[in-house]
Amino acid sequence: MERIAKTPQPPYYAVIFTSQRTNGDHGYAKMANEMIKLASQQEGFLGIESARDSEVGITVSYWDSLESINKWKNHSAHKIAQERGKAEWYQSFSLRICKVERDDLFEK
Amino acid sequence: MERIAKTPQPPYYAVIFTSQRTNGDHGYAKMANEMIKLASQQEGFLGIESARDSEVGITVSYWDSLESINKWKNHSAHKIAQERGKAEWYQSFSLRICKVERDDLFEK
What we know:
Order of helices and strands of chain A: EHEEHHE
Number of domains of chain A: 1
Oligomer: homodimer
Largest sheet of chain A: 4 strands, antiparallel
CATH architecture of chain A: 2-Layer Sandwich
C-alpha cells in the first residue's frame, strides 16, 4: 500500500484519528491490520495514511462522502474493534471528520 | 506540549502534512522543532499533532481560519524551511487543507 495516499481532486473527506495507546499489544497490531484491510474494501474509500511513534499514532483515512464514513463507522466488524479499542487499546484518542478543500503533492 | 491537541468546538481548520524523508538528518530535527515552536506562536494557531515512524511522518496542525493558514504558509522563516524541505529533507509529501466539521475526544 502507498504510504502517501493518492487521492482524487478535492473536495473529499478525511477522518483524522490520533491516539495514545495503553501498554502492551493485547491483539492490537493484528486487529489494526485487519481494520485497514477491511476499510480499504468499503465503498467510497479513497486511501489511508498512518504513522506511529513511541508516544502517539495518527491515522488519516480518506473517503468520498460523509455517507461512506458513516457506513464504515457502523460496519459490524468495525464496531467490535471500536469497543475493544476503548476497553483495551487506547488511553485516549481524538477523531475528527474533515472536508478536504485543497491538496498538493510533491514528489522528487 | 499535549500530544493530542485540545481544539475548540468545530468548525475550524486542519493542515494534514504527510511526508517521506530523504536519508540522513541534514538539520531536519532542529528545524522541525523550531517550526513547531514558531507555528504555535502564530495568530489563529489551535494545536498540533505529529507522529513519525521509520517510513512516514504525519503532522496535523489546527487553525481558526484559512487566513491564518495562509499567513503561516507565507511566514518568512517558514518559507525558508519549505524550500529546504523540498531541496533536502523530503522525498515526497502531501499537504491537505481541511475544514473540521465534527470531532470527538475519548479519555480514560
